[in-house]
Amino acid sequence: MSETTEKRLPIPVVITVLLALVSAKLFWVVIEILYLPSEGIDYEGGGKSASLYYRYRLANESGPVVKKRVVSQPAGRIRDFTLKGLYEDGDNSIAILTKGTKSHLLSIGESVNGYRLEKVESKSAWFEKGGKSYRLKLKEKNSGRIDRSYRVIRSSAGGTSRKGDSGKVVDSVVDGAPKVVSRGILKKYSQNADNIWKNITIDGVKRNGHLYGFEVKYVKRDSVFDKLGLERGDIIIAINGEEITDYGVPMRLMSEIDTIENLTLTVKRGKMEKELEYEIR
Amino acid sequence: MRLVKLVPLFLVLFSVALILFMPGREIYYYIEKRIFENGIIVDSEEVSEKLAGVVLEHPAVLIDGAEVMDAERVSITMLLVYNRVVIVKPVFSRVLGSILPGKTERIVVTYIPFMGISMKTESELGNMSGYIDPINRTIHLEPDESEEPGGLKSYLIKSEKGWYYERNY
Question: What residues of B are in contact with residue A211 (Cβ under 8 Å)?
Answer without folding.
Answer: 64
